[in-house]
Amino acid sequence: MSDCIFCRIVSGDIPAREAGSSDEALAFHDLNPQAPVHVLVIPREHFGGANDVGPTDSERVWPALFDLATAVAQELGLADSGYRLVVNSGTDGGQSVGHLHLHVLGGRRLAWPPG
Ligand code: 5GP
Ligand code: ZN
Predict the structure, then answer these.
(1) Using a 6 Å cutoff on CB, does residue 89 contact ligand 1?
(2) What are the structural domains of the chain?
(3) What pTM was computed for the model?
(4) Atom 12 (ligand 1): residue with closest C-alpha?
């Protein structure tokens, strides 16, 4: 989708600081980090959000996101100290970009529950 920011990052149209990559997914540092490490992991294919990954795609898309997220967490030194994986979905979930993405947050103690 040419009007989607994250599709444009996948295509290289918009630059991003890459943190990892696989056949199905791309990881890059968030522009407005909420923690010392804040990486977004996205599918290369456009899905609007969690609700848009139907049964046909779920076995391919979700493992790709979680596999790359955990690899990036390991690579960036978060595996022992801990980290959080978050998918904001829809208005109440706080989703602001309409291309599915997994947040990897770490490097500080994170509050729970979220506000
Ligand atoms: P959401 O609020 O949808 O869960 O998360 C969207 C995230 O994308 C936000 O944390 C925001 O800072 C990040 N973001 C929005 N536009 C860009 C961009 O152009 N580049 C990067 N690297 N991050 C972005
Ligand atoms: Zn997109």
Answers:
(1) no
(2) 5-106 (3.30.428.10)
(3) 0.98
(4) 32
Ligand 1 contact, 96 CB (< 6 A): yes
Residue pLDDT, tens place only, 69-102: 999 999 999 999 999 999 999 999 999 999 999 9
Q: Is the CB of 94 under 6 A from ligand 1?
A: yes
Nearest-angstrom CA–CA distance, 45 and 75: 24
Residues 6+ apart with CB under 8 A from 99: 1, 4, 5, 6, 7, 42, 46, 47, 48, 49
Q: Report how far ligand 1's centroid is from the alpha carbon of 31 (Å).
A: 6
Phi, psi for residue 94 in degrees, rounded to 5: 85, 20
Q: Tell me the pLDDT tens digit for each residue of 8-66.
A: 999 999 999 999 999 999 999 999 999 999 999 999 999 999 999 999 999 999 999 99
Compute the distance between CA of residue 18 and CA of residue 49 in angstroms, rounded to an integer. 21
